[in-house]
Amino acid sequence: MADTNIESSLKESRVFPPSAEFSSQARISSMDAYEEMYRRSLDEPDVFWSEIASELEWFEPWSKVLEWNEPVAKWFVGAKTNLSYNCLDRHLSGWRKNRVALLWEGEPGDQRILTYQMLHREVCRFTNVLVSLGLRSGDRATIYLGMVPELPIAMLACARLGVMHNVVFGGFSAEALRDRINDSGSKILITADGGYRRGVIVPLKKNVDDALGGGAPSVEKVVVVRRTGETVGMESGRDLWWHELMAESSDQSEAVWLDAEHPLFMLYTSGTTGKPKGVVHTTGGYMVSAYATAKWVFDLRDEDTFWCGADIGWVTGHSYIVYGPLLNGTTSVMYEGAPNYPEPDRLWSIIEKYRINIFYTAPTAIRAFIKWGDQWPAKHDLSSLRLLGTVGEPINPEAWMWYHSKIGSENCPIVDTWWQTETGSIMISPLPGATPTKPGSGTRPLPGIVPDVVDRDGNSLPDNQGGFLVLKRPWPSMLRTIYGDPERMKKQYWDEIPGVYFTGDGARRDEDGYFWIMGRIDDVINVSGHRIGTMEVESALVSHPNVAEAAAVGIEHEIKGQGVVAFVTPTGDSEPTPELKNELRDHVGKVIGAFAKPEQIRFTDALPKTRSGKIMRRLLRDLASGKEAVGDTTTLEDYAVLAKLRESEEA
Ligand code: WT7
Description:
Layout: H1 3-11, H2 20-25, H3 31-43, H4 45-53, E1 64-69, E2 72-77, E3 80-81, H5 83-87, E4 100-105, E5 111-115, H6 116-132, E6 140-144, H7 150-161, E7 164-167, H8 174-184, E8 188-192, E9 195-197, E10 200-202, H9 204-213, E11 221-225, E12 239-241, H10 242-247, E13 258-259, E14 263-269, E15 277-282, H11 283-297, E16 305-308, H12 315-327, E17 331-335, H13 346-354, E18 358-361, H14 363-372, H15 375-378, E19 387-391, H16 397-407, E20 414-417, E21 451-454, E22 467-471, E23 481-482, H17 486-494, E24 501-509, E25 515-520, E26 524-527, E27 530-533, H18 534-542, E28 547-557, E29 561-570, H19 578-591, E30 600-603, H20 617-624, H21 639-650
Parallel strand pairs: 4-17, 6-7, 6-8, 7-14, 8-11, 11-12, 16-17, 16-18, 18-19, 19-20, 29-30
Antiparallel strand pairs: 1-2, 3-13, 4-5, 9-10, 14-15, 15-23, 21-22, 22-24, 24-25, 26-27, 28-29
Bound molecules: 5'-O-[(S)-butoxy(hydroxy)phosphoryl]adenosine.
Residues 269, 314-316, 391-394, 416-421, 442, 503-505, 517, 519-520, 526, 529, 531 line the site of 5'-O-[(S)-butoxy(hydroxy)phosphoryl]adenosine.
């Protein structure tokens, strides 16, 4: 990952302990308390997890906490529960029924506020809609919506019934959407006429029509939320309006008793092969981890208003906009649009308006705020904030310091949370009332989590030596499988290094046991916190008629963390023109989504390959970032290729 990050974080020696005031009111208020909890979680894991799980509702108890047959875990074996029930019904008997569950603001400035009781009614209504459309426990539903309240409502309705949801980020193209619908075999698709983003309407329904037009035989019905009021085509017999279905539907629905291992959702993410994989999470374990981590890391209190600024299309939004906060009975804020619309202070104005207490965002966003200028946060009263968080990529110490001083007034702990779609919940993070933080480090593992830094053979490495980040023990919210491809799950995560879960990240551990994540060391690029597989970009490029061969690599990017650079060999009869470059960028946008468009495309007569025909990405990475190829090139098949590539740089 970004070399400057590694160098500056190697030099980083500042330590920021939580204030006495923060600690005295925190749920976990000292390192001793943390150490004690951590030790207990490893010495007596069954007791530890049982106690936490018992804070939630179970219809039938478990006979065993964990059954572990590497690589498949079963947690809370034999128990029955329902996640939607735990997020909603559980809060209705006491004072919390009229606490705000979702505090939503649309990009144009409209608002919707749903208390736990109101949200419960909407979710029950939509559960009945799903039943009336023929959905049953075990079916799949794809949700392709912007950030509107109907998105969590649909998710919670699926969870209530035992239907797996497959949320597809609204920034994905029609083609990417179709692949995800087809792989999941979804019976139903939930979308909207459009969504607002930076003052423009994102044509969600049109993308859906294009996706289904290309062939998606499993889809029987499309439910369309009216968000923008634009005219959209409605195919009779297939397309139905959300509001019409809801109007006819009862607001009472019993939550189905589901097995703890009943599949809850799939979420497609990029890996080292061309095809995105559907990471599967199940009900009981995911519920316990989402609940516990939200409570520990964000130190949630009954009076808090919590804002995770992610999109629900990614796992961060699943776990920390929807499930984690609602399980804890918190007020979760949801904002529909762009952070700089109509002006670059939109987020700060939202924090001021709702007196938000906890704010969680990505380093890439922080770097954009820095670039937009200090005057924007300075215009607002941000004194309601007591805790800040980051997620998605390594944070450079400079961005950390800016967040600390300009947003947190040097007063708010920062929790730098490391985790993945596959882990389901936060794995490594400070506990804000206990852990002294160091800018750029995720610090220590949460209770029950055993990370290590190892070499290829799985041997632990000494302090401050870089290696592979692995997780050595199962945890409740660990992925259970790759949808339809259990073999791949084994190969991808468990065969790489014997006996442990391989994360795909590089890391080092310092003398205080703090983890410093260095970023992906596999063929995954992290662009603005979005995971993109190099193979995905490459297969998108070679699907264009003018491309013979392509290789994509990540380079450091000032705002996005990383950007994509693609080396392309055009077919013999194609002219390598600037127009073709633009066309190819757009083509990648069309196949994957605009966020995956390469920063740069470089034409080349040939790609550097080893004698066995493997593309030498390391060499391309060095070239793309303007470095001389210092690494070993002795296996390079054709030295002339390298010289030609260097020339192509100037062109
Ligand atoms: C990859 C997972 C987990 C929610 C968002 C991304 C990187 C994530 C951090 C962090 C350094 C981080 C890793 C990881 N990452 N959080 N705090 N510090 N790197 O989920 O799309 O599954 O991506 O994001 O490289 O493997 P994801």
